[in-house]
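Appendix B, example 12.
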Amino acid sequence: MKKIIRVLLVVMLVMSMVTPAFAAEDFMGSISGRPDTGLAQIGTDEDGNPYYGIITDVNGNITHYIYKGQIIVTPYAKIDASTVLPQSTKDLMHEVYADLEDGTVKLSDVPGLADKVKDKFGADVDVDSKIVVYDIYDVTVINPEALGIGAGSTLTINFNISIDTDRFLEVMAYNGNGWSLVPFTNNGGTITVTLSGTGPVAFLVDVADDGGDDNGTVGGDDDQDKEDEEETTQPETGDDRNPLLWGGICVAAILGVAILVFLSKRDKEAEEK
């Protein structure tokens, strides 16, 4: 009887270690460990300098180009590691992430999103089950007032993210009071987004029905640290489940076996005495 109780206790221990790993898969499974993609170049100015953003006034006229060093784009996975962003920006990113993760903010409540999803997948589709957050980025412009970012102006930037052009995609921005859809163009390797200000930007995709990757793929950046990319990009194996989950199961199983062996050995020694 004592051995049965011990086995049950070990099983309970293993399950308690594995359960959090399952829970972590339910929301934005690819967000942790994602390479920092940065921005893709939009064009070059009259002097041949590459620029990464465009600011236009209320009449649609270009007023400023944004060059490297004037704009910072940070994925959620890298937000705490940033030494440049203020704590208030980091806190806001954690807040909007948590609200989306725990369902405080539902995607079906984002103005206009439900209509777009139902037009694509049918009137009976459950928006909150069909659509997932691919990732969240913070967009920060250095000295925005000097660059003319204000009422009526727009900021156009080119994210270096690759999502199949045949796949459902929407982009939304957080304006301090809530999320709203923003104009974008999926270029099949980059995504050009037009914003009315800075702050969190989220990319939304549909859950794949064919067992494919629900979180899409991230394109590389020519200026990105190649070593970091190799460490964080996982090979495609046909299994889109979190490898940390299986690692946790293996560790827990080995620990459970070790505990059983130890208890059996101790009981045997006790009986011999």
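Residues 30-241 form one domain. DSSP finds six helices and twelve strands in the chain.
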